[in-house]
Amino acid sequence: MRLVYSQEAVADLVRLRDFIADHDPTAAARVAADLIARIDSLCAFPEMGRGVAQALQPDSIRDFIFGKYVVRYTVQGTALVILRIWHHFESSRDSA
Description:
Keywords: Toxin-antitoxin system. The chain has 96 residues and is an alpha+beta fold.
């Protein structure tokens, strides 16, 4: 399965990394790398996340929690599309 990041998801990763880097640059690199590695693992098991109830088709958009981070994604054919990424203390992102 091919992995695709939306522009919003890329911006989310940059924003999260920059926020952490303000406090601990080493931790920022580690967290970003860990998130990317875990997102890569979704390709093998795309049904791991739970459906987003507020989506028009709740099983078409899924959330998966990696530690303190939420990854919202969808599967479109043979592509797993990462829609948004946020820390669980942030409000959920609209992408449904």
